[in-house]
Fold this sequence. Notes:
The chain is an alpha/beta fold. It has a single domain, classed as Peptidoglycan recognition protein-like (Lysozyme-like, 3-Layer(aba) Sandwich), CATH 3.40.80. About 25% of the residues lie in helices and about 15% in strands. A 5-stranded mixed sheet has the order 3-2-4-1-5, covered by helices on one side. α2 runs parallel beside α4. The structure holds zinc ion. Zinc ion binds next to loops.
Amino acid sequence: MIQELYQVGILAESEFCEDLDFMAVPDIQEECPAAKSEQELREYFKNLSIKRKITHAVIHCAATQPTASVSSILNYWKNTLKWQNPGYHILIGTSGFTVLSDFNNVTNGAIGYNACGVHFSYIGGIDSSGKPKDTRTELQKHLLKVCLEEIRRLIPNIKVIGHNEVAAKACPSFKVKEAYPEFWTGK
Length: 187
Ligand SMILES: [Zn+2]
């Protein structure tokens, strides 16, 4: 499905960047496709063969209500923002994760940190009035941690930051330094 939606290709730097924070994403009531478990997440990392130089892992929120569906987020990127590539590599919903892009492809996560970065995001990050809020569930907190554990295992020197450390944004609506002190490095 992802391959149908996006042209997959390695870009030197993304042409489009995430510069519209907290836009409303249509809240289509649809089941999150391919939400997978922690075990599958660890297996995904174990089977990875990373062929580009990745120096940074950047944590994001999708800047949506926690109930937003994966397909509504994909639709918004593709049809409203006209992005060619997804915003993140892995998106963590309230019931599991979805791989949006191969790690060897560049995504539209953060200006200046796309060519060198891998981007992890959770669905949510705003409250019912549209203000930034850490809406992570325990599962989302845990699966983000698993992403950081696994990427650190694969790339021991990788730097770990939140999007809000490299842009004037609330994203991911919490401080990575405080939430994941064992992984956070700063930029
Ligand atoms: Zn972000």
